[in-house]
Amino acid sequence: MAVISSASPVSIASLFRPIRKYPTLPDLVITATSTSCLSSLSQPMDDRQQPGSKKRVVVCGGGIIGVCTAYFLAKKGAAVTLVEKSSVACAASGKAGGFLALDWCDGGPVESLARASFNLHRSLSEELNGPDSYGYRPLTTLSITVTESGPSSPSGSKSSGDSMIPSWVDGATRGPRTIGTTQTTAQVHPQLFTRTLLNTAVEKYGVEVVIGKLEQLRVEEGRVGSVVLEGGRVIESDSVVLSLGPWTGKFEMLASMFRVSGLKAHSIVLEPKDPGAITPHALFLSFHPQGGKAMDPEVYPRPTGEVYICGMSAEEEVPDDPEQIVGNPASIAMLKRVGKSVSSHLREGEARVKAEQACFLPCTDDGVPIIGEVPGMKGCYVATGHSCWGILNGPATGAAVAELVLEVTHNLDRAGVVGARSACLITLLSILLVVLVVSYVIIFQDCWFAIEFYNCSLVRRF
Fold it and tell me: What residue intervals traverse the membrane (predicted)?
């Protein structure tokens, strides 16, 4: 028996952090040890199982990719245990902007994945009451150049003739351009989306959630057999999905195969005094600060009445514990300067700073997510490396991984999907062929989602 170990200790935290908005959203009550839902889900299954028994899958990672994977696996009938070392959506999945775009990845290797996932977001919103549960809404997206004004400069210096600029954007702006419409761009509150999806997975499909640190994978005869947590708990499994985000490099087995680095991104969340004045316009800025180089921050008003501002990214070492991540003071200060330069509604005294934060985006060297079965280890899958598009691409990634995991009895040839990046590209690009046909049907939630995997073609209904 082979034992494959993780590398770093992580503290146990509560499952969810408090959310002030959307008070009607039910909290999922889970202890620091575990919550078991539907004991019948623990029935064993392997390649020799009797028909009708449930396949046991352990998903490691409580971010958007892991939660989406657990959701679609359980919806398709698997017995799923989700293992999270700290708290669900505690990192990038809780601190991201939640921006969704249909066609912004066109021309690249994840074009089809993004288009499929954008439509799945719309479908999930109808299924889960997204507008009320987690702030899903279409919105208009603008590109604007903003110049920082001096301390004595008055607000309301918007250039004349720029009628497309929203009235609340009253800083020194120019060159507005529409880069997304309500048909092609949308948003979610990422932490609330992740929580809502997991709540549904637990309550409706019986997912079990365990808070604990992944210590080992036990492999027998080339196939994963169980997951060992810090403290000694063993979870038997037929398949394991590793969705470890920027912590992928902390797991020695994966770090030896590919590099996933962490890009530290900063953000602030503001609560303006008059949230009703803020219209649903996402802003992608070319910001020119006094005495500094131009930068590209982003501004996302949310239906909660908050305004999210992000930017100031740099590659840094990822700490072992997500709770250790804090923002750099200079980066946070610059984002505040961006806010007050964009709008008088976002200046000190007119808006309360609700959060100053940072998170690490999982990035690969070539910008392509790593999705597939680990070579030489049957039943072990990986899904990571989505960079800034993790929230957008979470649903389609989860659906694709669920398809891959649940087809083990079909003797599919998946060797080398992770090691050969071209196979991953085939997986992602092939989704586009089906999306063009089913994009309208997806809205009605009874659709066929086709994904061509490495040397095989799968068609499954969900």
Answer: 425-451
The CATH code of the domain that includes 360 is 3.30.9
Total structural domains within the chain: 2
- Cβ 59 vs Cβ 69: under 8 Å: yes
pLDDT at 162: 66
Gap between the Cα atoms of 229 and 442, Å rounded: 38
- Which of 45-54 are b and which e, b meaning 16 or more Cβ less than 10 Å from the residue's Cβ? beeeeeeeeb
Full domain range(s) for residue 358:
139-149+165-185+260-364
Residue 87 corresponds to which tokens in the numbers above? Answer: 């708290």
Q: Name every residue whose Cβ is closer than 8 Å to that of residue 28 and which is 6 or more positions away in sequence.
A: 15, 16, 195, 198, 199, 202, 203, 209
Residue pLDDT, tens place only, 197-237:
999 999 999 999 999 999 989 998 889 999 999 999 999 99
Euclidean distance between CA atoms 83 and 70, whole angstroms: 10
The pTM assigned to this predicted structure is: 0.79
237 and 279 assigned to the same domain = no
Three-state DSSP at 134 gives coil
What is the C-alpha separation between 235 and 159, in angstroms, rounded? 62
- 111-128 helix and 390-405 helix, angle to the nearest 10 degrees: 90
